[in-house]
Amino acid sequence: MRNIVYGIIGCGLIGNKRALNLPKHSILKGCFDINQQKSIEFANRLNIKNFTKLIDILEDKSIDALIISTLHNSLADLSMKALKSGKHVFVEKPGAKNYMELEPIIEFVKSSNLKISIGFNHRYHRAILKAKDLILNNELGELMYIRGRYGHGGRIGYEKEWRSNYEFSGGGELIDQGPHLIDLSRLFLGDFSKINGVAQTFFWDMEVDDNAFLTLQNKKNQIAFLHVSCSEWKNMFSFEIFGKKGKLDISGLGGSYGIEKITFYKMLPEMGPPETYSWEFPMADNSWQIELDLFNQSILCNSSNNDSLIDAYEVLKIVNNIYKESNYDYCS
Questions:
Q1: pTM higher than 0.85 for the full model?
Q2: Is the peptide bond preceding residue 23 cis, with omega within 30 degrees of 0?
Q3: CA 105, CA 72: separation in Å to the nearest integer?
Q4: Which stretches in the chain have pLDDT values below 70?
Q5: Which CATH architecture has domain 122-286+317-325?
Q6: Rounded CA separation 320/88 (Å)
Q7: % of residues, the chain, pLDDT over 70
Q8: How far apart are CA 142 and CA 246, in angstroms?
Q9: How far apart are CA 237 and CA 299, in angstroms?
Q10: Among 43, 175, 180, 233, which one is most buried in terms of CB atoms within 10 A?
Q11: Which CATH number, 3.40.50.720, 3.40.630.30, 3.40.50.880, 3.90.960.10, labels domain 4-120?
């Protein structure tokens, strides 16, 4: 089995995470960042080539796939350039600054054999995978609704960072952590036909939102009730799935978000206090590795792996809808 040769565009925190989680049967050849000092340090640390020009990493014929981990406003443009250069693409969420930027990419890959995947790594956390197994085994019965909360408390100077500038980010907290909650809700409940919510700036002195509240409803009248926040003073992740036979309570993501855990509350025929089963995952998060393994496998086996592109498109349409309802002028 041949090795897939990778390059990385964007040498920040996420680029580093991706580099450290490359799968077997892969080689990291080089990197590029517009901040050349950062790129040089990245290359020296990993003993790979530093590309001084974007065009050079795009046109390097020995590179099969590019990982793109830049700011939101350049994700779609770089993805299209990489695809047109004949490269497979793994691009970080949300995949673009808005859903319209993904439309030409969707059209391009329809007539291409190239693979593109959006980095929704939360799908591959151990607790989420356990939830999928329990639901597939009908442990919860018919699903009714989801309640999700995701937040952090920012840091000194947060209002001056790139995430707080819509020219770079396309929005605030809703387009930052929001896509993960929306994507997970779509994973379990499918497409949503009714979108309601509000994005608002409560605390941070910035032009983008620091909180968003969403109610998403599908054609079966199943609902996802979601809240994302960067004024959540204790980092938290909570994702609860309610079925007619029980409830799953997923909490924590490791690190500052606490130990990753899933608890299954199984309703008894006589109701009353449920039977309770819990699984904890104190080990290091391996979702980044699983996600890249699947992408790498799709290249090696020439299998379909472009579904996450449509998922990202649908997620960003929901984000755009909420921004429009909330009267933010960067909604389109």
A1: yes
A2: no
A3: 15
A4: 1, 305, 329-332
A5: 2-Layer Sandwich (3.30)
A6: 27
A7: 98
A8: 10
A9: 33
A10: 175
A11: 3.40.50.720
